[in-house]
Amino acid sequence: MKTKFKILTILAVILVAMCIFATNKVEATSSSAAVTKGTPTANSLDNLPSVISLDIKESECEKVPELIMNKVISELEKQGMILNKNEGYGENVPEIYVWFGTKDDDSEGGNGLYNGLYKIVIRIKVGYSINKTIILNKEITIKYNNTTNYNENDKNYVANLMKDFDRKSIEIYNRPNQSQDVIEILNKKINDASIKLIYNGMVAGDPEENWGSAEIMVFKNDVYYQTIKVEARSYDVTSDVNVGNNISVSGLLPNVNVKVIPKENDVMVKDVYNVGYNKILGAYELTLTGATSLVNPIDITFNVGTEYNEQMAYILHKKADGTYERFEEQIKDGKVTITVSELSPFVIAVKEKEQAPITNQTEQDKTPTTNKGEKDTTPKTATTDIIGYVLVTTILSGIGIVALKKRI
Which CATH number is 152-235's, of 2.70.98, 3.30.450, 2.60.40, 1.25.40? Predict the structure, then answer.
């Protein structure tokens, strides 16, 4: 019983891995439809040319199956047939498939972009699964609007650039879309806007060891030059681990944790004040346990309270080399999250809200009160000063009038 359970578990893992790595390939390189009216024959697509020019770049090749399928549908509709991409397939329903590859390839998904970037196959079958009978198998050559831009200088540039990545390993940490992660990691390492990478599918792998080898197509200035194979190794990481003081982290490897110690830092606090954030919400020292350094970036979430929602939080992080990382992030649901590659001191702050002006108080309410028996040292208000000025002016005016009458 245990042996059967183990076998079923292994098969399930393999199936999941195949789905992860292969889904993009199938969706990106194939298109299909069911014929709901009429019957195609071996001559149904004779009017389609053997070479079709498309007004797209080579780096947009993933659009080709859809564009060609539209041409197939248009041609068959002229012959009185109707196609529906959403129609359920049946045993006697002709199905039309379009994908990259050659007509000699019997695999349902073709050979992928790598082996058929310029060759597209239109195949019509009737029946179920692998027992379908082929009644049409037409191969069409695709030309793109920038194919003539291919040149040896760019070819050599790509070859030299990719030699550091071809057949090398890339580490991925607990992401749902491994193929996209490989692309993102390579793009950051390459750092060249003229280079575009397209995932071409999974070619080998071992789900139990969490690794797989993937094909990546390389384009320069939208022209295809090379395909490389990259070994992607996946590692499980933690998610939302509460490490104390309203701080949680995610992205740590197993058996690694973070220790939080509240620790004042006058120099960092002064720096925070200097940029206008005058309410310190916390100052901490974060250190790793179970490891000496982070092998991949992690997310740190500070729970500061919902009373600060929609405000901007300022987080100052002092790195090991003495430089600072500065983050300004909006607080949502009482939380703010940053991504870091190392740990050390952190200070988090917000801007203190200004008090709203008081408009409904009476003059008596505004007058400061003092305790009995104590001397009132409160400065006289502007109202008292004005009354004094009016009184003096009145007295002087009266004296002036009396003096004037005496003269008369």
Answer: 2.60.40
